[in-house]
Design goal:
CATH class of the largest domain in chain A: Mainly Alpha
Radius of gyration of chain B: 19 Å
Distance between the termini of chain A: 39 Å
Structural class of chain A: mainly alpha
Largest interface: A-B, 53 and 50 residues
Number of domains of chain B: 1
Radius of gyration of chain A: 23 Å
Oligomer: heterodimer
Order of helices and strands of chain B: HHHHEHEEHHHHEHHH
Shape of chain B: globular
Distance between the termini of chain B: 48 Å
Number of strands of chain B: 4
Number of strands of chain A: 2
Chain lengths: 426, 308
Amino acid sequence: MNNGRRIVAWFFWLALIASPLVFVRPVYDWANGTWRAEFRADRWQMLWHEAPMWLVRHWTDFLTAAGLIAAGVAISWGWRRARPKLAAATPWRALDDWRTQLLGFVGIVMMLVLVCRHVGDTEIEWAVMACTYMVLAMGLNLTVGMTGLLVLGYAGFVAIGAYTFAVLHTQFGASFWMALAPAAVIGGALGFLLGLPSIRLRGDYLAIVTLGFGETVRFLIKNVIGEQSLVIARDARVPSLMSENVAWRWLFPDGLSRLKTELWVVAVGVLLSLWLVRNLMLSRIGRAWIAIREDETAAAAMGIPAVRLKLLAFTLSAAWAAVAGVFYVAHNTSANPEMFGFSESVLILSMVVLGGMGSLWGPVAGALVLYFVPELLRDRFPLLLSYRPMMVGALMVAMMIYRPQGLLGTLRRKIELTADEEETGS
Amino acid sequence: MNLGVELETIIGGISRGAIYALVAIGYTMVYGILGMINFAHGEIYMLGMFAGIIMLAVLTTLGLTALGIAVCLVIGLLAAMVLAAAFGFSNERIAYRPLRRAHTLAPLISAIGVSTFLQNFVMNAQTKDKLDFPRAFSEPLWNIGWNIGSAHIALIQVIVLVMAVVLMAGLHLFVAHTKLGKAMRACAQDKTMAGLVGIPVDRVISVTFIIGSALAAAAGLMAAMYNGQTRFDVGYTAGIAAFTAAVLGGIGNIPGAMLGGFLIGLVEDLTAYHLGADWKQVAVFVVLMTVLIVRPRGLLGERVADKV
């Protein structure tokens, strides 16, 4: 590693570790520009008097931020001392260590508490949507990334879950929690039924079949259920958690609004997905998927039941999308066929492609870059949101040409994607 | 059932099918040579629509309508074809050529990227709303017509059909009888071998893209004239319908694409007439999935779809 890259790496590492500081009220205000308004030059005197009060008033936040930073430093140094060579080559492997996982888990919970205390509803809304996209991208990654089956109609499976919930709710008054299992079952079953005849097709044909399926689902919903939105009533959505309990009031002075509860729910979803995908990747099934992706004929010759495993990936990824769809509708408060168009499938696909097909953290990074960052910058660059689809398109081309394995992809995937296919004929 | 209306639907379906056939040829030629689905082809068709309409608007502004409708339409057509050909050529150069030796899915993902890019580029650069085809150029063609029994045929339908047939016949002659056409057929059979015997494979592929895009643009302008309006996202639906046509006829097979185009046009218009316009898209997608699953080589295709 040369010096320039090392400096950049250190810079990012420091920024990552120092990022909890954003949640300390004064820093947060300063970043938002409200600090300057509050403390103009003529109020420096007051600031002098108020500064100690600040520390007192926001001591919990300072403490939590300090804790987070300490945890980050501890992870990085502990890991570096324990496995210096491995740490230099692959710093992210620290995440495989159980101590790191525990610290990270505590850190995430603390972070969520801080977010719920201080961050405005707009930003939380973005975070909730970004997390939903993370879950979706991880689900799509099972087929596109790990098994090498390109699915172009992923939004169709999301729509199936969403409409399972919406119809169950409008017909039988089902709530969010009750709809999760039926949506997973129906989504998985439809994915299985679609996969059954089409899984033996070659890659690009399968992609087009799934595209046709996704669009058919949308049009069927439009023609049979109707174009109008199905609204989910208040009490069927994720509840808000208000309590007079002292400890609860101390932790969350304003209680947890519905949006903030949703953030917790979706954060659990992301963690659960990460855990599931990681374990799948390391399991027999995951390794078989990767073998199929690399060379299906060879994998089949080694005794891997390729068709059955491909169907499993397909079904699992469909059920995954359906569950995310239930959450999406509960968050969005209504379901409309236009929400699940082809562009949505492309957006999710581009998150996987950008982050890295077949990598664990790739979809997470992809969702952050393609959903969260444009929203974050929307005030400063209002055109960014309308140019996002264009950026997505250009990015997909550029990624395929210059970095087919994605931002966080593995070398193995790169070799596969750029492999010379001359000997198989074309 | 009303026989006259039925017949009119069939005539409408055939002229719409002629448009799909022209677009499908582009899909099928590229697939025949490169073995990739050029997902951005529908966007080229849409670009042709926009270019043609803008050219006609320019002609109107310059007061050149005095030249006559036919001359103006031909100028618009040429403008559309040239622009679309340029886009098709650069698409291949920028997005597909570097991926020629990559995994099968890489060019497809890249093509989806190009498609998304072009669609939103037109949306941002031109308009989000529907763009009307100038009435002055299409109205007269609708007003002239003939009655066959109780059915009515408009001149425009005849023009669309004749134009499409002429272009397809021209393409057939080109592929069957010129040196470049022979090179194309050689490349479709075996690119490596064609390169070894001295055929400039890259140039042949560029020519394929140029021809396919120009045909798509011609189809686009005719479709805009026929439907009276266009929008930035029509390329997607029309592209899927044309791709369905190509697959239905047997992908990689030019006569198959023509047959498939006419069939898809008929399926669309008959479904729209009997079940309602809402079901048109569903019919296309159902045909697409059924053909791919049941008979991936299509009606006229000889090649068995390979498994890997």
